[in-house]
Amino acid sequence: MGLHFLSGSLTFDPIVHQVDGKTASQVVWLDALLTNVDRTIKNTNMLIWHKELWLIDHGASLYFHHSWTNWQKQALVPFVQIKDHVLLPFADKLEEVDIEFRQILTSDKIREIVNAIPDDWLNWTEGTETPQNLRDIYIRFLEERMKHSETFVNEAQNARKALI
């Protein structure tokens, strides 16, 4: 969690900026895990700053939280919107990244990350859910996504095959 102004940064453009297959696969995989619908050619939500790729504006991720009632079902979706991802054509190492990221994003690591979210950031529901209840749902959602990562990886691979 952080905020940093990237003075002098440029909007990422796939025609101008080259991204290697591993980096593209990492970004596509992460966005598929988080169900981020907002990294398309029309709005890449990526910047180039000091010759490095920066991912910004994750506000369209984890969209299941707009309807808490079906989060279990949403955790298992293949995420068909990945077909519109700006980096999908370059993401040729999705299986390799899946293996690597499954080892990094363990249940303990997911819990550590989600438990770092301040209560104030989780006091936005009108229901009776406490910040800890919401954290628990996020943790369970992400753990389910990780357990079934082959579902969204296969979806991304099939969508990529249809593009190239």
From TrEMBL:
Name of this chain's protein: HipA-like kinase domain-containing protein
Pfam families recorded: HipA_2 (PF20613)
InterPro entries: HipA_2
Span of domain HipA-like kinase: 16-139
